[in-house]
Write the structure tokens for this entry.
Amino acid sequence: MADYTAIFYISGGGFGQLVAAGTAWGKAGNNRMYFICCGRIGKSIGMAYINWSPELSMGMKDIDEQHKNFVGLINKAYEANKAGAPRGAQKEVIAGLIEYGRYHFDTEEKYFEKFSYPHTDEHKAEHAKLLAKVLVFSDKFEKGDDVAPELLAFLKDWLADHLMKHDKKYSKYFKSKGYI
Ligand SMILES: [Fe+2]
Ligand SMILES: [Fe+2]
């Protein structure tokens, strides 16, 4: 927990410097901006590498839980790298990401089969591409490269893109068919 958390509201601009100072910010409505600052970096709101937000929800309990766990694993990888964890610990985190990725993709692909999802092939190809890419990072890590910064940036972008474009597509389809 942070020692303190403060939320400030600002009308109009002028928040750039504050954001640059490492605070979390967002739109509060009516064109007001807000930022949150915390007394200590930790498990406080807005300080994780990736924050879960309601728009990432698919409206499917098991899938949402898995996505949250995946976000948690990426945050764990970020923390391990930031703390300069030993390579053994970093290796475990990378292996965990690959294992959890396979488990999660398998869960989604079972839904595709169950509901005869028409975009199954393209979605499965996206999953395969991600796993192949992370395995390349893993190989580079095994050879002694410092892959963490690039891997983390890749996973952060991939996750947002995949959830919003591809996973949302199947959840909308399942809902339109009354499956969920
Ligand atoms: Fe997913
Ligand atoms: Fe997916």
Summary: DSSP finds five helices and three strands in the chain. The CA atoms of residues 143 and 156 lie 23 Å apart. Residues 148-176 form the longest helix (29 residues). Residues 5-38 form one domain.
